[in-house]
Amino acid sequence: MSKDNSILEEFTSKEYEHGWSVNFEADEAPIGLNEGIIQWISAKKEEPKWLLEWRLKAFRIWLTMTEPEWANVNYPKINLQGLRYYSAPKQKKSAKNLDEIDPELIAIYERLGISLNEQKRLEGIAVDAVLDSVSVATTFRGTLSKLGIVFCSFSEAVKEHPDLVKKYLGSVVPMTDNYYAALNSAVFSDGSFCYIPKGVRCPMELSTYFRINAANTGQFERTLIVAEDESYVSYLEGCTAPQRDENQLHAAVVEIYAGAHAEVKYSTVQNWFPGDKNGKGGIYNFVTKRGICAGDYAKISWTQVETGSAVTWKYPSCILKGDHSIGEFYSVAVTNNYQQADTGTKMIHIGKNTKSRIVSKGISAGKSQNSYRGQVQVMKRADNARNFSQCDSLLMGDRCGAHTFPYIDINNASAKVEHEATTSKIGEDQIFYCNQRGIATEDAVALIVNGYAKEVLNQLPMEFAVEAQKLLALTLEGSVG
Amino acid sequence: MLSIKNLHASIEGTEILRGINLEVKAGEVHAIMGPNGSGKSTLASVLAGREEYEVTDGEVIFKGKNLLDLAPEVRAREGVFLAFQYPVEIPGVSSTNFLRTAVNQVREYRGLEALDAVKFLTLMKEKMKLVEIDQKLLSRSLNEGFSGGEKKRNEIFQMAMLDPTLSILDETDSGLDIDALRIVSNGVNQLKSDKNATIVVTHYQRLLDYIVPDYVHVLFKGRIVKSGTKDLALELEEKGYDWIKEEVDSAATV
Ligand SMILES: Nc1ncnc2c1ncn2[C@@H]1O[C@H](COP(=O)(O)OP(=O)(O)O)[C@@H](O)[C@H]1O
Ligand SMILES: [Mg+2]
Fold this sequence. Notes:
heterodimer, A: alpha/beta, eleven-stranded mixed β-sheet, 13 helices, B: 254 residues, alpha/beta, Rossmann fold, six-stranded mixed β-sheet, four-stranded antiparallel β-sheet, binds magnesium ion, SufBD_N (chain A), SUF_FeS_clus_asmbl_SufBD_core (chain A)
């Protein structure tokens, strides 16, 4: 431990030489990105030496990388030196009250049926709601720990379960994986850690919603889920409610490890600030999510409902290494106004008799661009691999775009890969039919869109599905008629 | 209840309705007959408020209101119901879910409280009997994969659920076998009261044996060229439409 500290000191003092100083009392790192900042973050979080070194290694790799440009999205270059890379959970923020909240936002929250208390929490104002969720978390924590389940923040996990973190961190998404994954590895702030021991079926949905850290885990989240052999867990990510987030860039990494006969379901409903009607502002969401079915008969299922962010770049993937393992990807991606989404999945069949299923439902409205990008790769020894992909696009109006980029790479003759794609327009006659039954156009659109996305929404846990339905309607409000 | 005066409507620059006049009172059943392409569905669509049609002249008063000023969903809530000739499919949306949305929006407009799930299902069960429709059909996606007969039956079921004042049935008999025709007509007849009215669009007299009209009108080239009682329908059945066409043409040359 003392050795860790001395190395830390060495690094920090080195930065001092360059005339750069830090204030350890502050909750925020200075703006900019360099090794000093990374040391600062690591020190702030009292991390062990190995983790600091891991971060620095990632940073050095990242420096040699260039931003990917293959995605079908356009945005001005992000000044990564202009960002702040660490901001601790805000304590009670002084004197901000409800009156200061954008009335437009309040209206949106109200339409979603979110209580004022919750609104306050979302705005990072009140701590009571946050405290509420702490008590919720602790209640559950008792139940969970009896089963040997670990569910805590990533930082806590580093302190309390360093061996597990060390073993699995970067094992599914290596720091070299891509530009944003490398950046995340260098500067990640916090996130969730979840460990399900062998043979344990997690009795409840685990959700970041129930954790205090969730509110402010910041721009570079790191989530690690480990499901040992024969275990099961269903994990819900983040926001079931709109999170107005001032951060411009989000580059999260999620890693899932599933042992033999283990099953992990990972659900996301993403509704970050999409920018305004004119395409101003909004989050850039550049996320790397990947799971490995490491053991035989393992199963990983991704379900995502993407409604927010100005630019989305996201491909939750499965490495099907174990024989008979199964990967699934269910996605609804909605874009409106000037939003751009390039999302899809990668299914990499390595083991024998592996199966994957892709159901992607894109919905484009306004002047948005919505792309599905999916890769199905069947390796040489993956005998009898099966894939079924269904990629549907729904267009609303004629100024938006829907694109499908399927990549299929098959190296085993016994593979069976099916790809179906449809593009349809939301029909005037469908809307008129609804109108004729007394249903207002907006509600008609919501009905039709939810019907279209049903196969995906059905994969979500009940309460989540209801939220997702409301969100879809909200996102598309005013896009027809 | 409904008063149509000199109604002209066109689509993509082609005039389809060329001066329709029609008075419908509460408690009445009117049949509109006429050869294919004469404008029957167009009339139904214009009354229901389909935007593709441009009304170029005339007026429609419904329960004292200028119907043409109202949005389609408001017309529906006011009590105009159209049983479509070709009901559309809405994938992934069950009839039950669809109807619950519709019924509650209509109820809200009429100042009634929304029905909760239990009350709604009770109402549904009651109305299902009217057209002998199966619950299973209603849990499936709306009209998706329904047979022609099932779609028509579902239209009348929806009519029963929405309790309209003016129902327009557009070729509800087409695609129905004789048993289904009897069941559907039976449903329509049970829904009849002295407070509501029905316009039955058909080109077969067969349906009118079951739903007996008070008046029969012949629509031809966008105009009502002849009106009469049920006997007119029988006459048409016997003689076809040619004599009407001849009458119209000779009148035009005079
Ligand atoms: N979109 C359209 N453009 C041009 N003509 C149309 C269009 N839709 C319908 N029509 C024409 O309008 C006329 C009346 O059609 P319709 O009202 O469906 O007749 P009916 O129901 O009596 O058989 C037909 O001649 C038909 O071809
Ligand atoms: Mg017709």
